[in-house]
Amino acid sequence: MMIMKSPKEAQSLFGAKHNLINDEDVSYVLKRKMEIAHRIDVCAAQSLGGAVSVIRTVVLLATKFGGRYMDTLSRSLRIGFIVMFQSMLSTQGAELGMIEDLDIAALWLSLVTVRLVVKEDEPAENDYEDTDRDDFEKDNSFIGKGDGVLCRRDKGGRLIVEIEITDEEGVAVLEAHRNMSGFPYYSTTPRDYPGSPLMFNHNPTVKPCRLDSQYVVYATAEIFGVAVSQGVNEMQTLANLSSSRDVLKQVEINNGAIARMEGYYANYKEALIFQLDQRKPDLLESLSGGGSGSGIMSGLSRSGSNNNISVMSAVKVPPG
Prior knowledge:
The protein is an alpha/beta fold. It has helices at about 1-5, 5-15, 25-65, 65-80, 95-110, 130-140, 165-180, 235-240, 250-290, and strands at about 80-85, 110-120, 140-145, 150-155, 160-165, 215-230, 300-305, 305-310. The termini are far apart.
């Protein structure tokens, strides 16, 4: 029915009709794809809610306390906000499907662009002409709006999640940007399909929305989602004793998570070194004043003169 009524939209979602043999095959494929899409929607919505909570918490802590929380926010704006899920489910029975859902939901987060926005005073109702409002509603990318969260899509189809922050938090976000000035952006989006419209873009092109005039974008970032399966319950013990290959799903998920974490850790290490190098002049000046300092400065190694101080000796960074 959808192919007959909206052939262009249907083909963009499900492929051309002539690739299938008959109408029964078309119906079956559409049904299966809609079931998969619904399953992804259910799982992704929950993982996205968790990711938004993590980002809100990082911004709040950086604003209120600064210090290490500001460092975390500064790095995350460049290499992505890491959101980790830990599963205790087994690969036995229906729990196997739950683990697969969690893994897909975590991977899906890397296809989401986050924008931190500050809401300005709402315009008066008469600021919009009725004709302009109709045009906006017909040609926009608006998907939905929740409590302080606005969801839309860019012109390539990538999901844009705009998280509303306060003016005070906006100041902290700008400071975090300045702290990493000169450090490149690293994308967490899978590189399997170079040039894909879903690739991350720090300046996404979005269709106009009537709410645009109410928000000012302060930062754009990615989410790095990763899921780890421990499977420590009694059901996993039974699964390990069985001859089913389903038990290998846990190994597959964890190996994939480790491989992705290695890439993220490499970016994290570079960002950490950059932050320490930025602070090196202040640390040298503080040490030259005669005090041995405390905290991070107490871990600095002095060799001969103040000009030969290893900043990296203050932090134990395992070899890459």
